[in-house]
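Could you join me in thinking about how sequence relates to backbone shape in a protein? Would you write everything just below, so we can both look at the same thing?
***
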Amino acid sequence: MVKRLVIDDNSDLRAAIRSVLESAGYETVGAENGVIGRDYVLHDAPDLIFSDTLMPQLDGIILYQELHLNPLTTNIPFILMLGGGYEGPENLLPLFCIVKPFRPQELIDIVRKALGD
């Protein structure tokens, strides 16, 4: 079955996001940092990646850029979680972004939009 990958170094937030997505009928897997997330994507490509921005080892923006440049992973929709007050590169299209804190329905809505549901 196709899965949605949630990458976040905060285990509580990662679990909460997975719970919201699973309650909406989406099968999910989690990764605690960008390196583990990247390895998962390269071995078992999910149909959507939901990643935090700031993480140790490999942040979400660098992860997105690496995967977007790879012909095998460039078409996987990528949702980046931004902290309030985020000031980073503006050239992240065709990336989907959501700003923390967000409501569960906002999360479901952006996932549906990214997947074209």
Notes: The chain is about 40% helix and 20% strand. The chain has one domain: 4-115.
